[in-house]
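Entry 12.
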Amino acid sequence: MDLDVFVTAHRAEWDRLDHLVRRGGRLNGAEADELVALYQRTATHLSLIQSSAPDPMLTARLTQLVARARATVTGTRRASWRDAVTFLTAGFPAAVYRSRHWWIPTAVVSTLVAALIGWWIGAHPEVQAAMGAPADLREMTRPGGQYETYYSSHPAASFAAQVWTNNAQAAATCLVLGAFLGLPVLAILFLNMLNLGVGIGLMSSAGRLDIFLGLVLPHGLLELTAVFVAAGTGLRLGWTLIDPGPTTRRAALAQQGRAAIGMAIGLALVLFVAGLIEGFVTPSGLPTWARIAIGISAELAFLAYVYVLGGRAARAGATGDVEESDRSAELPMAA
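Predicted 3D structure (tokens):
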């Protein structure tokens, strides 16, 4: 394509569109129709230039013009409480439900890895000896040792806030780094399972695995589920780079990325609940069965939230993506 000839042929249309956009709400009916037609035509021009004769300055100009025209055509919309309610009752649970084929296998494999690491450490004294001095390991696993006092080492409120912050950052990191083909997500997930497996192995070797599970399960069920959801979504985002499906790679990645951002917000709320349980329930004086029952109840409530509300919203077409009116205009592909 001869760029100079193309610009000469269409410059008048772009200038006219710019003029109409500047007038904004003072357009009559015919001018409004003209604005829409010129907006669609200019978007096509931009697509042709990007694919056939990319010019940085012209592309930047037309991109800005198309964005301004689209804002004029569609108008602006302010976020409201209704958006938050829709997100919590449809968008977020639907996104988690739709990604279940990623995070459920992630959860199963990760749990097996943690159990395998725990068995390996617990069944091999030489591995334990390589991890630390016997006196240090006894200090960690004895009654009243570090594993037990960890959850009551700080005031409950500050401990819950610290746990929530750390877990929310880990979940967000999984979601963001998924764009790097999912490899960083696998590393983060393995480190989490390694820490869990070490605790299982050392406490089982000391004959106190029941105590360890009684401390971990109340908050760990919901907390690990949130981590698995984040990791599974991150892996799905990484796979989108390899197989974007029927759409373009950029469009597919943008859609999955927007959904991942929403997932990060929703999972932060889930991890907030897990942090409250870890800060106030896990170190409490409640019987072990009561603490575990609270953890199981929280986990079942989250799964019901995902499969009932999320499943219904997903079947109705919700994807966890932002509303179509809030997305950037998707330009037509040049042949």
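Annotation: Confidence is low (pLDDT under 50) at residues 324-335. The first helix runs from residue 3 to 23.
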